[in-house]
């Protein structure tokens, strides 16, 4: 029998062991298709979809996804338990593997809707929402949250939030390990400025060992992931996965003890071209797909020029295969000339 790498647990790994974070405008179905070529086992999350958009908007546009995306979770934004339950039913009907409630987004628009991070001030309401969703579907209902609001760093606040929501049946908590400051910071600043306190997520796991605790925030690279997995059940990676997608290519082997699905970057790029061709037949311009893979060759010779070709809007009338051929040229020339990595 082949030796199991030390970082793969002897027992079946948690389905939440490695997750790619929900990211608005980024983790659409094309991005998830791309990530799935790099890891078969990472759990993927949609962008946040609000209950209003789902109940009154174009449901197929928000919910359709490809069979290859599993396991994939729908993230909801909302606070009204009956609306959330109705949306959870839609998620189940569409075939999602999980429904996740956003209790971490600090944007002013979301605050006006009284959901996202401000829900951390209302654990009883979140518990009601979780219960309503669990009563409506048999999918796992999970919560993604912060570790506090404003400058208050009391552990009791997040412990009581998790305890109350867990009592309503939520078994999986994705902990973005920094506070949300609801005043004075933009959403982007709220992902960088409030300090990371991973020890809070670790303490939650120690205090609630039966819960699945997934830590998120500022985690990049296999070593950092492995270090977190010594304390918690799973790691969710956001920006690092998006900007440096090739880092996903080692995950299956290292963290799930399974063969890596991607042969090399060129094979992934070619698979994406074929996908763009299928999407083009359905009316989707290649640029809507290609924008998610611009980091694929980062660190390799010719990467900057390659990126420029795939983001050149003057080429938007050309088929993806033509753009692909053009994009190969700079990489080849750079490699032949020994140009250093960009
Ligand atoms: C462009 C962008 C959009 C995001 N949209 C969402 C979202 O829709 N729902 C959510 O829960 N978090 C959202 N986040 C936050 C991420 O899920 C994650 O919690 C955060 O980026 C911290 O993880 P990271 O340091 O690994 O990126 C977003 C982050 C970014 C960069």
UniProtKB/TrEMBL annotation:
The record marks 102, 188, 191, 304, 307 as: Interacts with tRNA. FMN binds at residues 22-24, 75, 144, 176, 216-218, 238-239. Residues 20-324 form the DUS-like FMN-binding domain. Its cofactor is FMN. Its EC number is 1.3.1.91. It is an enzyme of class 1 (oxidoreductase). The keyword Metal-binding does not apply. Keywords: Flavoprotein, FMN, NADP, Oxidoreductase, RNA-binding, tRNA processing, tRNA-binding. GO terms for molecular function: flavin adenine dinucleotide binding; FMN binding; tRNA binding; tRNA-dihydrouridine20 synthase activity; tRNA-dihydrouridine20a synthase activity. It catalyses: 5,6-dihydrouridine(20) in tRNA + NAD(+) = uridine(20) in tRNA + NADH + H(+); 5,6-dihydrouridine(20a) in tRNA + NADP(+) = uridine(20a) in tRNA + NADPH + H(+); 5,6-dihydrouridine(20) in tRNA + NADP(+) = uridine(20) in tRNA + NADPH + H(+); 5,6-dihydrouridine(20a) in tRNA + NAD(+) = uridine(20a) in tRNA + NADH + H(+). The keyword Protein transport does not apply. The active site is at 105 (proton donor). It comes from the Bacteria. InterPro entries: Aldolase_TIM, DUS-like_FMN-bd, DusA, tRNA_hU_synthase_CS. NCBIfam families: PRK11815.1, yjbN. Catalyzes the synthesis of 5,6-dihydrouridine (D), a modified base found in the D-loop of most tRNAs, via the reduction of the C5-C6 double bond in target uridines. Specifically modifies U20 and U20a in tRNAs. Belongs to the Dus family. DusA subfamily. This is tRNA-dihydrouridine(20/20a) synthase. The gene is dusA.
């Amino acid at each position: 029998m082949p030796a199991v790498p030390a970082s793969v647990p002897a027992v079946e790994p948690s389905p939440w062991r490695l997750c790619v974070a929900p990211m608005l405008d980024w983790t659409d179905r094309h991005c998830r298709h791309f990530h799935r070529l790099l890891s078969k086992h990472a759990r993927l999350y949609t962008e946040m979809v609000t209950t209003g958009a789902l109940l009154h908007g174009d449901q197929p546009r928000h919910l359709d996804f490809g069979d290859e995306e599993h396991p994939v979770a729908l993230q909801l934004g909302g606070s009204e338990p009956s609306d959330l339950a109705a949306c959870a039913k839609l998620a189940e009907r569409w075939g999602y593997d999980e429904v996740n409630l956003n209790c971490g987004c600090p944007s002013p628009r979301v605050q006006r809707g009284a959901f996202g991070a401000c829900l951390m001030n209302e654990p009883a309401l979140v518990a009601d929402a979780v219960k309503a969703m669990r009563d409506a579907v048999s999918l796992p209902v999970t919560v993604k949250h912060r570790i506090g609001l404003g400058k208050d760093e009391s552990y009791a606040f997040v412990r009581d939030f998790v305890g109350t929501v867990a009592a309503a049946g939520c078994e999986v908590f994705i902990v973005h390990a920094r506070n949300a400051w609801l005043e004075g910071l933009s959403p982007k600043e709220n992902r960088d400025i409030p300090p990371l306190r991973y020890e809070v997520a670790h303490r939650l796991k120690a205090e609630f060992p039966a819960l699945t605790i997934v830590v998120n925030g500022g985690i990049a690279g296999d070593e950092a992931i492995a270090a977190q997995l010594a304390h918690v059940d799973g790691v969710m990676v956001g920006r690092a996965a998006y900007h440096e997608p090739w880092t996903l290519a080692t995950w299956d082997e290292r963290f799930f003890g399974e063969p890596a699905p991607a042969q090399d970057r060129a094979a992934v790029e070619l698979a994406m071209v074929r996908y763009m061709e299928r999407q083009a037949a359905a009316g989707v311009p290649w640029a809507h797909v290609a924008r998610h893979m611009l980091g694929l060759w980062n660190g390799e010779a010719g990467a900057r020029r390659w990126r420029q070709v795939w983001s050149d809007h003057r080429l938007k009338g050309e088929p993806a295969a033509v753009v692909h051929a053009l994009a190969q040229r700079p990489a080849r020339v750079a490699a032949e000339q020994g140009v250093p990595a960009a």
